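Researcher: Re-running this chain for the archive, since the previous output was lost when a drive failed. Same request as before.
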Amino acid sequence: MYKVNYRSKLLEEAVDQIASLPGVGRKSALRHALHLLKEPAANVEKFTSAIMNMRANIRYCPDCNMISDSGLCPVCSDSSRDRSTVCVVESLRDVLSIENTGQYHGLYHVLGGIISPMDGIGPDDLPIGALVERVGKGEIREVILALDTNMEGETTALYIYRQLIPSGVKVSAIARGVAFGDDLEYTDEFTLGKAILNRQLFSI
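Model: Regenerated structure tokens:
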């Protein structure tokens, strides 16, 4: 494969790092690097400082595992949220997608991944036990499983359902307005909102 001669080791290293981001090819990485090169040093310093500050100081909510600047996340600390309902999602991206629908007002439980033996991720690698503990405290009346409708998502939902059976809590799943194999992140807000509102009891 043809290798570009950047005429500068420093530029090449910058392109390598930018290209390591998801969805960014080397041509786009070069364009971003050259843009940063033309920016005032103060702007570039502000840009890199924001990323370093995020990486160094962001925390995870002790209740739901969502990111937080400090202590409880904004959702868990919001007294107006419905504390009897918890929506289980894979990632922060899914939280943002659901929040954008304006149709859900309960709490969340962020797994940070899904069961995927091919990737070496098992149930013990996810905070499923913490979810069971939350439900065991008695305040939660319904758990909504809002996971991607692919094989891994379905496997994870089934495992969680079986773990929650002894608690007697109501377990529902988003309606199938979200087609099998779809990622929540890329589902339009109207469809996702309807899927939340029209959720159904989870069944095997």
